Each structure stands twice: as C-alpha cells, then as structure tokens.
C-alpha cells in the first residue's frame, strides 16, 4: 500500500502577500475604473456643452443672415466661422435633403476619428421648413488624454499591488519572528533540558495560549519522565531482592551435596520468590493496560454491599489474626466489572488490615454520589499518614515511611496503584484522607 503523499509546505508570508496584492489590485482597479469613468463622463459633458454653445451661435447667425440676406450670405458666414473653429465640422442641409453647406475637408476624419456630434435645426424667415444641421467636434485630444490617464491608472494599480505585496511580506516576516524564536527554543529542548520553558521578550496575545499549553505539556512530560525514572529505579530495586534471594539460595544449595528434603526446602523458598516476581510482573502488565486507556467490562447492576461481603469473607483469616472487626455501611446498585472491583476492594482491605491497630474495627462505607456515581471508602484506625504523602499514596512503589511498612509482611507497593487504575477504568478516581488516627482510602465509580 503506497503511503499518502506529504503535502507541500507553504509560506504564510508569501501567501498573505499574494492574497493582499490581488485584493489591492482588485480594489484599486475598481476604484480607479470608477474615477476613469467619471472623468470620461465629465469630458463628454464638457464636449456636449461646447457643442450646444457653438450650435446656438450658428443658429443665431444663420437666422439673422436668413432674415436680411440670401443663402449665399449664409454660406459665406459659415465659411468665415469654419476658419475660426478648425476643430469643428459643420454640415447644413435643406428640407429636401440637398446640401446647402458643408465645411471644406477638415483636419480630422469624422468617420474614424473620436468625435462628438450634435444635430440642430435653423428656422427659416419665410416660414418654410427649417434647415437641418450637423455639428461634429474633434475629440482626439480628449481621447489621447483618456488613454494616457488609463495607462497611468493601470500602472498605479499594479504599483500599488506590488507595494502592498512587498510591505505585507516584510510585515508578516517581522510579525512571525516570535514564532521563529519559539521554534529555536523548542529545538533546544532535549531530555537533559526538560525544565526549559518557552518565553517571549514581548508577550504576544495570539501566541500566549499556545505558549501556555506547550509549557503545560512540557511540565507534564517532565513530571512523567521523573516518575518514569523513579519507577524504573523502583522496579529494579523490587526485582533485585527476590533475584538476589534466588541466586543466594541456589548458590548455597549447590555449594555441597544436599539431601532430597533440603533441596525441596530450597525449591519451596525459590518458588515463593518466583511467585513474588510473577506477582510484580502481572501487576505491571495490568497497570500498563490501564495506562493505555482500557475500560472496565461492566456487567449487570449488582449490590456493592454483597460484593464487599464476599471480599471480607476472603480476608477473614488475617482479620481474626489481627483481632479486627468490620462494619459495612450503605449499599448501591451499580454496573461494574466485578473481578476488577473485587481486586480493588481486596487491595484496600489488605492495606487497612496491614496498618490497623490491633483489636480495632474496620469500616467499609458505600455512599451514593449524584445520580450515577458511587464512592467506596475503607476506613481503619491506626498511624496517620503525613499530609505531604497523601498526594503520592497511589504512586507505584511508593511507601510513606517505615511506620507504614511491616518487615514480616513485605509487599511490593503496587496495591493502591492498581486501585487507582481500576477507578480510572470505571471513569472515576482514587482518594485518601488521614487525620486524628483514622485513615480512609477509597475510590469512586460512575
């Protein structure tokens, strides 16, 4: 199966520059096109105004000439006026369509040159049909000016787009310099510098949430790395003792010939150490699965009080040996993973039995929290746990102090970690309280 092609990276500065340049060209183009159209309309209006003024002069002159002279006099007047206005072309026709007057060949071609035209009528003094006239103005100069203006506006538009593109690219590069600084700081972080955090000389509002999230992530990574180093050391320490015992017992057994009962005793001792090793490995595998997000397999709702009673019966022997009694308070129906909850309860009861005062009473409380949640506590009377140790009580291989350990009943310190893992698998969490000689350890489930 072919891997999907990696998309090509693009430059934010170049993309923004291109987009803003295009927007600028479009915006300026529309604006300058409106200006050009308005200017051309002003030219056309001025041309029509000139034509109307000149046609008014022609009409008045022709009317006066027609009243006191002949058509020949009118032609002479028009010839004289044509010499005074070389940029215009005048044509005058009688009512029957015959030409009365037409300017000599003008300096421009009315058929091809840019022109502005106006038609007018001249009333006759004798009351006959009026003369029809056509006045054409040469607009070549205005057209040339318009072309120059159009070229200038196009050049201004392109220059404005180019300037905006350059300015945007420069500004974006300057604005992205904090990101480059953050990238350089990130490259400098390695395993030996996990305590380093991202900072900016000038805090940026848009980048601050990213910096805070990254620094929070690095804090969690650092804490996890420290815990992992400690965990590895604890695992090595916990495995070293049973391995040393196995090696020592085996070396002693091999140092001289042994009888069958003696070898059986050595094998039984080694079996105990091997079982201890197997327990540590199994617990570590279970915690690894819980860390990967495995959820509990819930069954039908059942009575938690009955579940607690079953676990208590399993611990009757060590409780009688320590002279301990137990009370079960409360009950709730909840859909849980029965084997996992029994394991968590067994770990809590074993922990409470181990540290409870002799001839005291244990208490298991089942409290309903909200509509769906349930909290389960195991309480014992005994040495209090220091407040600074409570947050780490559920860490792997953690032991508060010597007062919380029994050398004759060693354990590898994963029981409460498993309780916390089972609580997470039921969408809950573990908690502990200790004060006035009473310690409560438990978890809630949803």
Automatic annotation (TrEMBL):
GO terms for cellular component: plasma membrane. Its main location: membrane. It holds the Pfam family HisKA. InterPro entries: CztS_silS_copS, HAMP_dom, HATPase_C_sf, HATPase_dom, His_kinase_dom, HisK_dim/P_dom, HisK_dim/P_sf, Sig_transdc_His_kin-like_C. SUPFAM superfamilies: ATPase domain of HSP90 chaperone/DNA topoisomerase II/histidine kinase, Homodimeric domain of signal transducing histidine kinase. The keyword GTP-binding does not apply. It is found in: Cell inner membrane. Keywords: ATP-binding, Cell inner membrane, Cell membrane, Kinase, Membrane, Nucleotide-binding, Phosphoprotein, Transferase, Transmembrane, Transmembrane helix, Two-component regulatory system. It catalyses: ATP + protein L-histidine = ADP + protein N-phospho-L-histidine. Its EC number is 2.7.13.3. PROSITE patterns: HAMP, HIS_KIN. Member of a two-component regulatory system. PANTHER family: SENSOR HISTIDINE KINASE YKOH, SENSOR PROTEIN. This is Sensor protein. It comes from Hydrogenophaga borbori. The lineage of its organism: Bacteria, Pseudomonadati, Pseudomonadota, Betaproteobacteria, Burkholderiales.
